[in-house]
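Example record

One chain of 586 residues, shown exactly as stored in the release files.
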Amino acid sequence: MTLAVLILALFASIFAGTKWSDASTTPGLALDLEGGTQIILTPIASEGEVTDETIQQAINVIRQRVDSSGVTEAEITSQGKNIVVGLPGTPSDETLDLVRKSAQMRFRPVLTVGAPTPVESETPAEAPAEPETPVVPANPSDLAQITPAVQAEFDALDCTDPKNLTGGLGDEPDAPLVTCADDGSAKYILGPVEIEGTEISNASSGMGTTPQGVSTGQWVVNLEFNNEGTEAFKDTTTRLVSLPSPQNAFALVLDGLVISAPTANDVITDGKAEISGSFNRESAALLANQLNFGSLPLTFEVQSEQQISATLGSEQLEKGLIAGAIGLLLVVIYSLFQYRALGLVTVASLGIAAVLTFGVILLLSWTIGYRLSLPGVAGIIVAIGITADSFIVYFERIRDELRDGRTLNSAVEKGWDRARRTILASDAVNFLAAVVLYFLAVGGVRGFAFTLGLTTLIDLIVVFMFTHPVMQLLARTKFFANGHPASGLDPRRLGATTRYAGRGRVSRSGATADQDAPTVDAPVDEPFDRPAREKVGAGASLGAASAGEGSRMTIAERRAAARRAAESDATTTGSSTEGDKNEENL
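Predicted structure tokens for this chain:
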């Protein structure tokens, strides 16, 4: 019932989204399946050489722009000295402009900083109108630059919205800038640009040292400026050290977003600065690479821009779907052959899993822009085996319990207790592998890992909320409870030697069983032939019938048999005594 409500709510929300939003009844497809736009960019530096590290940082900048704009499954790779950007579907002009636009590194003073979430502006209609002649700031750190309009923009900015983290937006060097941290953790009002990134001569990461040359054990970023940058940085730090927080900090702005905002503790006259903080090896190296990227006046030249088709991907998808259909058909045939009518539970469970997977992918395509790639389809096909494996584990546990002589109701519950632990352990390993693969891999492999992890979770939902409840219901039907040969749960076919037959009776089956004795196929609610039981009881001990008789008596039957045996003995004794007397009389 819970699963039915879940599926109904899932597809109802998607249907509502198609009416009142941009949801669709077909999943979004990635570049390899739908085609899209391919742009080849060549980074050009007017000074210096474009290195592999610079190209990698340029790729990171473009990826930040594309991912934050809502486009998923984009392919951004290097090809020699070129950068190849593949965008699935039909990207908007704004997204294409973000890809083509060059990135810049700039240093700006911090005027104010706040939490990333928007707040209600305190400068609406009641605020005095801005003067017709703007106030000329005394220096780049002058708070007079925070006009009511700037403050209102700052208050309304929501840095938790990915759309505000794209970068590549307006960045006028002579005007204040309202922007976000690149990770969305804070928002800033910054003063005009004081130092351009092209004035950086070198940046590196390493362990910090004291003036005596002793290592501090903390990772730092070392920054050096050229002659022009040294003079500008000296003037900046001279002013900043005398200001209160947060005006004593300067922001490193890459592509319009703040990547770091260190505080100026000393006046730096030689153009060599050390940026310290809560760095580790990776974060320090990343910041150094970003600073080196800004040291080049780098621009992107568009070499080509063309539409690409998904012909190859469509052919591969068709072959993949055929392979998946063949695999699914083999699983169905095996289930029906091995488990007979019980195999229909496997087929139904796979159908429910397919419906859930399709619905979740539709929901993700609508809500987060997820696009299904060819590796993602492969992950779904692999999940057929994972899901079928869970059912096989459960069914085999039930059959093991039936071999031990349990009734089907008892076997279902006992088998579930044993199978549940195995299924959870197996799916936990699969899910962990998918998570590790997702975070360590790149490109299409991540699509495979995503669908593999998704279908693993769906497998647990189906087994717990559909397969097990269905087995509980089937255990109450005569067809399965009585072990019909076509049910797949016939204890005799499973090799069971004993079986509880109800009302305190245990029936046996085997090659030595008497043909007239009750067998495991006998309904539990139909009593065995009483004359046969009496015949068994008359010649058997009080413990149990012989193996050839094929059944054991209940307590009441044993007592009745004992009484009949006693009466028979008494009759036999009486007859013998009377015969003796007659013999004596003779």
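Notes: Confidence is low (pLDDT under 50) at residues 123-129, 509-552, 577-586.
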